[in-house]
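Annotated sample (chain length 375).
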Amino acid sequence: MRCSYFDAERCRSCSWMGQPYAVQVATKEEHCRRLLGDRPDLLWSAPVTSAESGFRNKAKMVVTGSVDRPALGIVDPQGVGVDLRDCGLYPDGLHVTFPVLAEFVTRAAIQPYDIAGRTGELKYLLVTQSPDGELMVRFVLRSQESVARIRKHLPALRDALPMLRVVSVNLQPEHKAVLEGEREIVLTAEETLTMRLNGIDMHLRPQSFFQTNTDVAAALYRQARAWVDELAPSSLWDLYCGVGGFALHCADGSRDVTGIETSAEAITSAETSRREAALPRVGFQVGDATAFAVGADRAPDLVIVNPPRRGIGDELARWLEASSVRQVIYSSCNATSLARDLEAMPSLRPRRARLLDMFPQTTHYEVVTLLERAA
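Output written by the structure step:
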């Protein structure tokens, strides 16, 4: 993949841009293999690759410039806005939204936020596309000053973007490098975007996390489900469950499934999906993964963990090591923290692993590992 922004040094976010894609994937897999160690009983499946471009289902656009000429993209190291509407990472369904949204900023007179001057209102535009092509748009604002104007002009925006389903305002009043604030104001009757993967409908609310590469996320869930179906546990936990991707894929009516996540918005999304799918043996709770595990009366047969980059941490790793859990499926975006966590769980040994290239053109990836307790 070639990128004019990268070649002109206007954006270097994709640090591996220009490297042959096969080399990128091989380098990532070698990195993961090295960190997990030379284990003769560890079987690596062929990597899951991605489209090299047009794979992102979400755009996080910093809004700079003026009301009359808003720029949607990033801020460079000098604090200057760089318009990235033609970024090749986005599919056509997102590309068509950018000029419409820029025109909407002008029509609704929403002043882009000036970082240096700490003036203005609109900090980010967050746009998500579902597998069916439907859209969610979120305006991250400093205050409610422009909410009434957004409401006023919303019908015109929906006319211009017929696939638009959810529109919301997120309030982030503080001047710091935090993407969004706690308060969300949903402006549409519909509050969730349906992410349909592998025949399963998952609901995504505005403040819920979803993997940014839809096709590779679908492959990740299929891999976990295949391992779970083979092992046939009677009970499992999905820790750091997000909107319930692993839990919903692994629920077949024969096992008890519990999902735990700190985000109340994500749990509301997961519960909506569970309810619509009529899965009485699946349940979701808001809570800290480690506190839930440590405080539980009994352990399940299998645990799925999908932690942030820092990993599951020493306390949860030590609990898993001492527990009766027979298998762990560990999905990681950072093999360094994965390897550190494995050191704290010596009796749970990696048996299978697979790299999934969730983020082409960058150093980032997902690696999923099946751990089984040594006899």
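Annotation: The first helix runs from residue 4 to 7.
Annotation: The domain at 4-52+213-373 is CATH 3.40.50.150 (Rossmann fold).
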